[in-house]
Amino acid sequence: xxxxxxxxxxxxxxxxxxxxxxxxxxxxxxxxxxxxxxxxxxxxxxxxxxxxxxxxxxxxxxxxxxxxxxxxxxxxxxxxxxxxxxxxxxxxxxxxxxxxxxxxxxxxxxxxxxxxxxxxxxxxxxxxxxxxxxxxxxxxxxxxxxxxxxxxxxxxxxxxxxxxxxxxxxxxxxxxxxxxxxxxxxxxxxxxxxxxxxxxxxxxxxxxxxxxxxxxxxxxxxxxxxxxxxxxxxxxxxxxxxxxxxxxxxx
Length: 251
Known about the structure:
Blueprint: E1 29-35, E2 40-45, E3 50-55, E4 63-67, E5 71-76, E6 82-86, E7 91-95, E8 103-107, E9 121-126, E10 132-136, E11 141-145, E12 153-157, E13 171-176, E14 182-186, E15 191-195, E16 203-207, E17 221-226, E18 231-236, E19 241-246
Antiparallel strand pairs: 1-2, 2-3, 3-4, 5-6, 6-7, 7-8, 9-10, 10-11, 11-12, 13-14, 14-15, 15-16, 17-18, 18-19
């Protein structure tokens, strides 16, 4: 769905033809990005185990570009490389144009909690240095993998599942700003956390007031995005809404 700023209704831009595996259908899409260079959407079509490219204009169907992948999250770097999280294989792969195999850039050493492993990874973020950040869901941490590294660094959580400021509970959507500060949907705690680079604990910047549907509450937040004005957009999953929070960077 696409929602114009200020609009009260959206419009279908991909799928919308029922659940299925045809070229004009999707089955539990988990993430989507815009490839502006090719004027298309790239979609994690999770239950069809594929990544689909869907033209933004005058198109009624998509094209499968990657198969056999339990895709949950994806992103693209400035050079057009695509990064795809494989939830089932516990890894992140980077794909070039027309590349269907990809190369592992995080995880890929089986399911586990060692620094070279991931456990049900969800979302991925890549900065200008091609450093990869991954929300490592079942390890309750966010990992940072420098380009070419054989293992990652814990940058948020990693102290077991919990609600203390040093902990996360099933971290999900995530973005990272230019200073290396991590913003993460702490799904199990119904809050959004901010972790400045190099710190051992985070701070609550949205939610954290118990599970609920009030303006200061969240109900299992998942996806997270940001804009140039410093706003965070939260997929408030069980409230069936998207919340917008203005974050004061000076706090």
